[in-house]
Amino acid sequence: MTFQLEPYCGNAPTPEALMADWNLDPVLLSGIVLVAVWTWPLARAERRLGQWTLFIGLCAVAFVSPLCGLSSALFSARAFHHIVLISFAAPLGWRFFFKPSGVLDRLPPTAAFVLHTLVIWLWHLPLTYSWALSGSFAYWTMEVPLLLSALWLWREILDPKRAAGGALAVCGATILQMTILGAFLTLAPRPLFSPHFLTADIYGLSPLEDQQLAGLLMWVPASLPYVVAFLLRIGQTITASSREAAG
Question: What is the reported pLDDT for 247?
């Protein structure tokens, strides 16, 4: 099955035109402003305006900057786009989206892991990937769940009110699945993502090299924040245990 490609971020720009290829979609810009306005009161109340600024800024980098257009040309740029959202923006922004004692508190941490893993793997199946680049509706149908599930996942990992055992299990499982996906993309013997077969060479990469680069990005840089979070939760658990023993 093939799809008529109409990527939300536009057609692949040439290297010469890349830095001028900003996405100034008024609907997108309005959405980012609305999210900023909605989350700002809580960020101010918790004195986390710096963290809030980084979160909004990273969302703008992913969707407004030339990275959006570059992701139409290179699968590796799309992978980096996702890394910006799920590995760097989401751990900064999760606390601005969830109320204490909400419905998510009644769900096990594994629910967040299963949902997020499902969304990531759907994005990286060749058929659904091509569909996501077939128009704006398809793009946002994939993109919004990706970010929301990442926010939920990072809540389960970082929220000190959540049990450390569940947080560590979810974090470790996420590192494992990211490693598996990265290895799969890196070691695949042929390119899998047809939307980039005719665009990767504009940037001096074959489609297979582009895919391998994407795999390496998913394999290592995307996993590093989860490794840091895993070690952080272990440290917090040891500190809490030491205080209980001393008390």
Answer: 61
pLDDT digits (tens, 9 = 90+) for 70-91: 999 999 999 999 999 999 999 9
Q: How far apart are CA 32 and CA 23, in angstroms?
A: 12
Domain that holds residue 172: 15-238
Q: Please give the Cα distance from 85 to 92 (Å, whole number).
A: 10
**5 in any annotated domain:** no
Cβ 155 vs Cβ 162: under 8 Å: yes
Q: How far is CA 10 from CA 1, 17, 131, 211, in A?
A: 22, 13, 15, 20
Q: Are 142 and 118 in contact (CB under 8 A)?
A: no
Both tokens of 65, joined, read 């900057």
In a domain, 246, yes or no: no
Look up the pTM and report it.
Answer: 0.94
Residue 106 lies inside a defined structural domain of this protein:
yes
By C-alpha distance, which of 215, 212, 228 is closest to 88? 228
